[in-house]
Amino acid sequence: MIAKSYQIRAMRKDRRVSLPRTGFWLLVFSYLAFCVSDMMLSIQDDNSQMVKIVAFMALGLAVMLRPKFHKRILLVGLLLFVFLIAIGRSFNVAAGVDELQRFVFPIAITLAIYAYKDRINSLASIFLIVVISNDIFQCYFYLAYVTKLPLIVPVRIDSGLYLRAQGWIGFFSEFGFMNFCALVICAIKGGDAAGKLRKTFFLIFALLSFSFKLFVIILFYPIVFRKTGWKASVAPLMIAVIVLAVFISGYLDDIVGLASSKVAFYITAGNSARAESYRVMWESLSGGNFLGEGLGAFGGPASVKFNSPLYSKYHFDWYGMGGILKTTDTFYPHLFVELGLLGGAIWLYLVIMYGQRDVMSRAWIFVTCAFLFDNLFSLAILSPSYVFSAFLVLYVISQSRPTEKDGCSLDGRYRDKDIGCYKYVSWEKSKKFHTGNIHRGASRINQEDKKLPS
Known about the structure:
Elements: H1 2-42, H2 48-65, H3 75-88, H4 93-115, H5 120-147, E1 157-158, E2 162-163, H6 172-189, H7 193-208, H8 212-218, H9 221-224, H10 234-249, H11 252-268, H12 273-286, H13 301-305, H14 310-313, H15 331-353, H16 362-374, H17 384-399, E3 413-416, E4 421-424, H18 427-451
Antiparallel strand pairs: 1-2, 3-4
Helix pairs in contact: 1-2, 2-4, 3-4, 3-15, 4-17, 5-6, 5-17, 6-7, 6-17, 7-10, 12-15, 16-17
Keywords: Membrane, Transmembrane, Transmembrane helix
Transmembrane segments: 21-43, 49-66, 73-94, 100-116, 123-145, 165-188, 200-224, 230-252, 331-352, 364-397
C-alpha cells in the first residue's frame, strides 16, 4: 500500500515536470513557425498566414500548460474595455477584427515568454542558433549571387547600389535587428575570447543589413556597454571600413545622395506616407481622440484593404504610392489614431513593461529605446518574430538578477555596475566571493563580541 502511494506521487511529479517541458517546446515551435511564416511571406507564399495561425495556437497552448502571470495582467481587463470601444467605433467590423488580432499578438508573446522565464537561457540559446543559421545562409546567398546559383529568397538591392543582407528569413530590417539582439545577449553574458568573436560576428552581419536605423542604434552600443580603448572603436571602425570600400568602388556620392534623400523624404521635407501619418496622428489627438477612432481605421493593412474613410477625412496624401503601399509603415500613428491617446498608452505600457523588473539598467533602456525607435519608421512591433526577438532580450536582461543584493550569487553571477545587469563568472570566483563574505562576517561578529561588556 505504501509502495503504491509512492508510485502515485512519483507519477504526479513526472506529470508536473513534463507539462512545463512540453509547453517550453511548444513556445520554441511557435517562434520557429513565426520565422518560417516570415520567410514564406518574403517569397509571397499564400500559406504564410496559415503557418502564423498554427504558431499562435501553439503559443496559446504553451501558456495554458503553464498559466503563470505577472501582476500587470490586470491591465488586460482595462485594455479589453478599450478594444470593445474601438471595435464599436470601427467603420467595418471585419476590418476591426482583422486589426484586433495584430494588437493581441505582441501581448500573447510576452505572456508566453514570461510564463517560461525560468528557461529564458535555453530560449536565448535557441534564438542564437536561429540567428547563426540566418548568417550562414547569408554567406551562401552572397556566393550564390556571385556564381548564379539558385536563390531561395528574392534579392534586395536598394536603389541599385548595395545588396542588403536578409538571411533566409527574407527581411533585411528583421535580419539586422535579430543580429543586434544576439550581439546584446553576448555582451550581457560576457565570456572568453570565443564570446568576443561571437559579438564581432553578429555585429558584422547586423551592419550588412544596411539598415540606416540600426546604424544609428549601434553607434550608441560602446557608450551603453562602457567599451574603452580599441573595443570602443570596433563598431565605428567597421562602419568606416564599409564607407571606405564604397568610396573606392565609386559609389560614395550615390549613397550619400540616397541617404540625404531618405532623410528629406521621411523627416525634413515630409513628402512621404510616413510623414503624412504623423500629421494625421497630431490632428487626431489634438482633436480630443482619447479612446480611438476605431480598429482598422488607419495605418494598418486592414485600413487599406477595406478602404477606411479616415484617409479622405484627413486628406491623406499617398504621394503617388496609394496603389502600391499596403500600410503607412509607421506604428505610432496606427496605434494612437485607432486606440486613442489613453488606449494607445495602456497598450504600449502593457506590451513593454509586462513581466519586466530590472528596468532601470542601461542595457534594458538601450534595447527598449532601440525597439521603440525602430517603430518610428516601421510596423515592426506587429511582426511576431520581430517582437519575439526584442522581448526575449528584454527578459534576458530583466531576469538576470542574483539572489544577493550586491556581488555574486551562488549560481555564478555577478553585478556588472557598468551596464546595470548581470554577467556569468566561474564557480571558483563565485565560491571565493561567498567564502570571503563568510570570513568577513565571522570576523565582524568576533569584533562585536569583544566590545560587549563581560
